[in-house]
Amino acid sequence: MPYVHDTLTRLAKSSPAQTEFYQATEEVLECLRPLFERAPHYHDHSIIERIVEPERQIMFRVSWVDDAGRVQVNKGYRVQFNSALGPYKGGLRFHPSVTSGTIKFLGFEQIFKNALTGLPIGGGKGGSDFDPKGKSDNEIMRFCQSFMSELYRHIGPHTDVPAGDIGVGAREIGYLFGQYKRLTGRYEGVLTGKGLNWGGSLGRKEATGYGAVYFAENMLSAKDESLQGKTCLVSGAGNVAIYTIEKLYELGAKPVTCSDSKGTIHDPNGIDLGLLKQLKEVQRISLESYLHEHPDAHYISARDYPQDGHAVWRIEGDSAFPCATQNELTEADAKALLANGVTCVSEGANMPSTKEAVDRFLEAKIAYGPGKAANAGGVATSQLEMAQNSSMEQWPLEKVDQKLKQIMADIYRQCADTASEFGEPDNLVLGANIAGFRRVADAMIEQGVI
Ligand code: GLU
Asked: Site (Important for catalysis): which residue positions (predicted)?
């Protein structure tokens, strides 16, 4: 069908130089071929043309004053991609690599991810090229206040509800919330990932990582296997990686790696979770310091590593959990993982595997859970936070975790059933994209041409 090529050509012209966005779009559109053969009415309603175009994109200047008294300027973004299923929902990413294309790719993925949760949330994303690394608390606060001074007029509990992503955690959400409240005079659930004693949900911080592990358990149990006793490779050292590691231990697996932008730790005895939390959540310092307490662990500096790939994927293990960032797992990495006998990959990050790497996993028919399904536990729990805020309740951790577990099981079932319906039972990429798309597209048709 020519529509994939035509759409990508049109996007390349109208929205130039957004390679990650084209990559995400191509994957979704390729997967929809069998659906369009059976349901051509989606073409008649021009759903593709509409769904690849954000409903609204906001770009703004963020000026702030650093500790030396100098004026700094960053770019701010919010892409309100699709509201067919509910208010725009998706995180904010603060990282120097962020461009409008990054935010568009993340927003596009978010539409289908949020649809898969079965909850009433549309897709959006935002962020800035601001680099939180090395900034003082006061600088972070001033930046967040300036960012919110523009964003507040575009968001609200029934219109758009941002949350965290890379570089945005509880500290940043706190400063953003404070400024929203100051500007609007309203104390409401306009952000998720809030502090636990002022409107946050128990279990939200852990949810993305826990969810990615629950998703892996679902994939494995369909093959009469489990994570018990498995050696696991985890990349990243942020919120998603930390709570992936925590849940892996709870389920009897042994996570042996983690990584940050400077290097990879391989601890064959199992990652020291308490130390990892201390280094990354409290001290916010490089993983290299892990060696001070565990001199027999291995540290592989990113500088000493070849361009094509990531050291973490060359280590032996049974299951892999990419929890760092997009395109961190290349085709060469996928081949190395398969050669080492990895049988399960569950993505905690957004689009961490390149297209070629995904193709290798699908060809090998291993249990492969794409990010938009496997990491949906974070945003799903954000919706649980919204529900608690609107009813002025706080649910116990057990209730939130029970719901998260059920949501992950339902997402897995939906992806697996849809993959079977279209004749490729092992292909959860196909299942996730068709199931997510169908829910959004049907709502768009019922709501008319808008
Ligand atoms: N940034 C997360 C994601 O990629 C969470 C978004 C949210 O909780 O709204 O899904």
From this structure: 165
